């Protein structure tokens, strides 16, 4: 199974986000400088609208950088979560499932080779062994599910962020250039306001969905998993089931070899 984002891909996403976060203030200042350079040509009512638009752009940019800044220093490690989920399923759960299929009377030689009390003792614990192996498989599946969902959620959120913020840099750069033409200053300021509002909406929604998903889905799933791990389901008194039921006396020579609790069923 492929990863949602490899380590190299995820680090590239974060690099592009950080570069965009550095570029946005530069292009905003360029927009302001270019507009200021042509203010003398514009009537007062137009100047007021441009200044309002620039304040709006600045406010949105501040929100964008602040919100991303909350996450960029601890962005998560989706490739590791994905890999660990695979390991729990493939290296532990799959093996437990294989052995669960083996621990049946049809697959064991006990009922073919032995009779008597000892054979019965081994047969009686097979269902307990199966339950224990099944509990391991179920727990591994839950671990894989939680880790995989979190990996996907982190990856999807950062892909949305990098797409939005890089597009905003492109738009803001174009708008700053248009503002230097004089007549392009008013529409450039207005367009920058639209671009800033758009990127803020996308990023706030992406990170908000990630937080909500963790709170509403992953945290309860993690709690359920923790409860499963700390129950005795499949593990009597918290231990692996005994290999046999109790045999008080398994001597082959009891009563001179008569009525021994176990014997070979084959000649």
List the topology elements.
Layout (H helix, E strand, L loop, with lengths): L6 H30 L7 H29 L5 H25 L7 H4 E3 H63 L5 H45 L32 E3 L3
Task: Please provide a written account of the structure.
With 267 residues, this protein is mainly alpha-helical. The protein has one domain. Helix content is 73%, strand content 2%. It contains six helices and two strands; from the N terminus they run H-H-H-H-E-H-H-E. It has helices at 7-36, 44-72, 78-102, 110-113, 117-179, 185-229, and strands at 114-116, 262-264. Helix 1 packs antiparallel against helix 2 and helix 5 runs antiparallel to helix 6 (185-229). The longest helix is centred in the middle third of the chain and has 63 residues, at 117-179. It is rod-shaped, with a radius of gyration of 33 Å. Mean pLDDT is 80; it is low at 247-257 and 261-267. Keywords: Membrane, Transmembrane, Transmembrane helix. The chain crosses the membrane at residues 150-170, 199-219.
Which segments are poorly predicted (pLDDT under 50) over 5 or more consecutive residues? 247-257, 261-267
Number of strands: 2
**Count of individual helical segments:** 6
With strands numbered from the N-terminus, the spatial order across the biggest sheet is 1-2
Strand content: under 5%
